[in-house]
Design goal:
The structure holds two protein chains of two kinds. By secondary structure, chain A is α+β, with helices and mostly antiparallel strands. Helix content of chain A is about 30%, strand content about 20%. Chain B is mainly beta. The chains are: A alpha+beta, B mainly beta.
């Protein structure tokens, strides 16, 4: 059965995978290809895989969205921040890598902020 | 020299030639890798210290991982499939250091257990018995 990768994935270096990476769009023929589809990293490329996958479109979409959390090793307590786009993983010192919706704390206005002093 | 954080560490399982991250892992006990030695004492050894010598072989040990277990999650199901159809399985452990150091190893066997507790989520415990030792431990 065949599946098609939805994202770049690492692989064991071999003749078929000399760089150790398979790009998105790579077609994989393997008896266990359905596992990749179920886990959200690939889509079924033939009927055999589609049938073996045995998941609804909604389940597949959720798995695809969820895989980013898994691939980046996001801790359970940080998943909300990741899904909100505030963080996109961890820096080596443990701080958050800014996500697409990251807002620096210094730019957030609050009634008690120093910039507001004297406005009342 | 650096203190490497644990958040961001990823354990991957090879499926259909690609490495896929295992979801909801909360902790990993690295395998107790030990080089094998034997006692090389002899009757004519005059020293108090008991000598040992290396056999030149190293035991890879077992990697243990704790996770929030989801019996419906494809990634956890693919691990349990190794219990219904035992086979060698390749894994990668990717650390959260600056260089994202990878340890690649083969698992010869898998054990699985878990706990159901009122005060906690459903937990699973994996044990991966290493075949040999990981590659990537030393540059």
């Amino acid at each position: 059965m065949k599946c098609r990768l939805l994202r770049e994935m690492s692989c064991r270096k071999s003749e078929d995978c000399p760089s150790g990476k398979l790009p998105a769009g790579t077609e994989i023929e393997h008896k266990h290809a359905f596992w990749l589809v179920r886990q959200g990293v690939a889509e079924a490329a033939d009927d055999e895989c589609r049938i073996a996958t045995n998941r609804t479109p909604g389940q597949l979409v959720r798995a695809q969205a969820r895989y980013d959390v898994t691939a980046k090793g996001i801790a359970p307590e940080d998943i909300a921040a990741f899904e909100a786009g505030q963080m996109d993983g961890y820096n080596p010192d443990g701080s958050f890598k800014p996500g697409p919706n990251y807002v620096p704390e210094s730019t957030i206005w609050t009634p008690d902020s120093e910039e507001n002093d004297g406005d009342e | 020299m650096a203190i490497v954080i644990s958040k961001g560490t990823v354990l991957q399982q090879e499926i259909s030639t690609v490495f896929v991250a295992i979801a909801q892992v909360t902790g990993i006990d690295l395998p107790d890798i030990e080089s094998e030695t034997f006692e090389s004492d002899t009757l004519d050894n005059a020293n108090a210290g008991i000598p040992h010598a290396a056999t030149g072989r190293t035991e890879g040990g077992t990697l243990n991982a704790e996770l929030f277990f989801d019996p419906a999650l494809a990634g956890h199901q693919s691990l349990l499939a190794l219990l219904t159809t035992p086979a060698d399985q390749d894994y990668k452990l990717i650390f959260a250091d600056v260089g994202a150091t990878e340890w690649a190893f083969t698992g010869a066997g898998l054990s699985f257990g878990g706990t159901v507790a009122l005060s906690d989520g459903l937990k699973g415990n994996l044990g991966i018995k290493l075949d040999g030792i990981p590659t990537g431990m030393s540059a």
